């Protein structure tokens, strides 16, 4: 059973940066497709970014050019570097395993203040 623990959320001024981390345990991390999702108040949870076992990436249009997903297989960790944060980025951010397992982390709050 894969377990995911996110960290790195916080409150930042618009235009600022944060780096989220997600540590995975209970699986062979290098085989996992990892992703970040977010859920803003009153909205559905939405896809943000994903990274394959080979390192290829995909991003939601809303974060392209501002967010970068990466992974460090030696540390069993996936990261989300968030730059140029906007108030509309405010949400709880969730780490997720897409394949071959399917699991979610607990989430970490990110607030971009105006």
Task: Describe the protein's topology.
Blueprint: E1 3-7, E2 10-13, E3 18-25, E4 33-39, E5 46-51, E6 57-59, E7 67-72, E8 77-82, E9 91-99, E10 103-104, E11 108-113
Parallel strand pairs: 2-11
Antiparallel strand pairs: 1-3, 3-8, 4-5, 4-9, 5-6, 7-8, 9-10, 9-11
Commentary on this structure:
The chain is mostly beta strands and 114 residues long. Strands 2, 4, 5, 6, 9, 10 and 11 form a seven-stranded mixed β-sheet that branches. A four-stranded antiparallel β-sheet has the order 1-3-8-7, with no helix packed on it. Strand 4 and strand 5 form a beta hairpin. It is globular, with a radius of gyration of 13 Å. The model has no long low-confidence stretch (mean pLDDT 96).
Name some characteristics of this structure.
114 residues, 4-stranded antiparallel β-sheet, 0% helix, globular
Q: What fraction, in percent, of the residue positions are helical?
A: under 10%
Which value, in Å, is the CA radius of gyration?
13 Å
H/E series, N to C? EEEEEEEEEEE
Q: Give the overall form.
A: globular
Largest sheet: 7 strands, mixed
Unreliable stretches: none
Strand content: over 45%
- How far the N terminus sits from the C terminus, by CA atoms, comes to 40 Å
Number of DSSP strands? 11
Mean pLDDT: 96
Structural class: mainly beta
How large is the count of helical segments?
Answer: 0
């Amino acid at each position: 059973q894969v377990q995911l623990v996110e960290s790195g959320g916080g409150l930042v001024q618009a235009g600022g940066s944060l780096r989220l981390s997600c540590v995975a345990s209970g699986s062979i991390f290098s085989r996992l497709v990892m992703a970040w999702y977010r859920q803003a108040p009153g909205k559905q949870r939405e896809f943000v970014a994903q990274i394959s076992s080979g390192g290829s990436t995909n991003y939601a249009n809303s974060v392209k050019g501002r967010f970068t997903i990466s992974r460090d297989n030696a540390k069993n960790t996936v990261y989300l570097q968030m730059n140029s944060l906007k108030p509309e980025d405010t949400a709880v951010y969730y780490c997720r395993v897409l394949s071959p397992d399917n699991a979610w982390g607990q989430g970490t709050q990110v607030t971009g203040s105006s």
